[in-house]
Amino acid sequence: MKYPIFFLSLTLWLAACTSPTKQPATPPSQPESSAPIVVDVTGGSIKAADGLDIFYQTVEGQAHETTLLFVHGWCIDGGYWDAQLAHFSQKYQVIAVDLPGHGNSGMDRVEWTMEAYAADIQAICESLDLKKVVLVGHSMSEAIVSEAANLMPDRIVGIVGIDNFEEPEPVVPQEEIKMLYQLLEDNFGGSVVEWLGSGVPPAANQPINQAILNDIAKGPAPICTDIFKGMIAYHEAGKFPIALSSVKVPIHTITTIVRTKMDAWQAFGVNITEHHIETPCGHYPMREAPQAFNQLMEEALTQILN
User: Fold this and answer.
1) d(CA 42, CA 55)
2) Rounded to whole angstroms, how far apart are CA atoms 165 and 25?
3) pLDDT of residue 30
4) Which of 32, 66, 72, 211 is a good FRET partner for 290, with 20 to 30 A between their CA atoms?
5) 204 contacts: CB under 8 Å, gap ≥ 6
6) What is the largest CA-CA distance in the chain?
7) Element (H, E) at 71
8) d(Cα 146, Cα 83) in Å, to the nearest integer?
9) How many whole angstroms separate alpha carbon 126 and alpha carbon 231?
10) Rounded to whole angstroms, how far apart are CA atoms 112 and 132?
């Protein structure tokens, strides 16, 4: 069974509940410093198949052939791509979506599935008539961009995963999954901060990571928990390696905490090009280390489009 990368921190967290806390061996990294690029970001929305509003942000005045469509991970939103919208709008049309259940998009969905999210991405592409699209998917969105690419092969020219696509079928014991479900239902905010915080490397920028954890903890607990369960159900059904092995465009990944297990993926006929960020950071490199992240994104895009 395949589980998203942040499950690596689950076992560490559960073990830490009975283990003494260790002090960081290296000092935390400092925020990158550079003058921000100022762009005119505007919002819009389209309707999903079930009638929910799907909110997105884009940059005004673009006339570029290729679109970068940024898809966030669990319990965050499209605002996490602000530094990328600014940077990449110089060369590409850029769009960051709020998946339903997140941000400014609709919250009233009957069933939260990865397939429904893929259909949401398809709706964005069709409504905005996007013809040459690179899907950029963080964490949970590994499943969403893979399924979406298969729904519209005539529109998608590449995929870039962000700290995901680690391996097809690692196993997490069911008792740990059940324990996590219970913790999320009993105390969503506190459990999220402890669980995901346990996977932040000591050398990463701690204030930025704490702010991210606080964002996640403020999410709508029942919806976020149901989305999480939908994600797990998708992976338990073995759908992810099937979806990714059906993708016919170049697949790249930008990794931080994990490294892609190439041999495991090649057994499924999947070839992935990995770009690893050396700057110490956690699971959210687009916000923690935007300069290093954007540089590797440029490399990935050059290889995909040339």
Assistant:
1) 11
2) 29
3) 47
4) 66
5) 28, 29, 280, 281, 282, 288
6) 56
7) strand 67-71
8) 24
9) 24
10) 28
Structure tokens at 242: 């099937």
Full DSSP string of 93-122: EEEEEE-TTSTTS----S---HHHHHHHHH
Q: Which two tokens stand for residue 136?
A: 């950029």
First to last CA, the chain: 35
pLDDT of residue 23: 34
DSSP symbol at 159: E
Tokens of 221: 């607990």
Evaluate if residue 301 carries a pLDDT over 60.
yes
Fold entry, domain 5-9+38-305: Rossmann fold (3.40.50)
Parse the chain into domains and list their residue ranges.
5-9+38-305
Q: Radius of gyration of the chain from Cα atoms? A: 18
Return the structure tokens found at 168.
């097809």
- Measure the CA–CA gap between 143 and 247, rounded to whole angstroms: 12
Give the amino acid at 207: P
Check: CB of residue 75 under 8 Å from CB of residue 127.
no
- What does the alpha-carbon distance between residue 249 and residue 208 come to, in Å, rounded to a whole number? 34
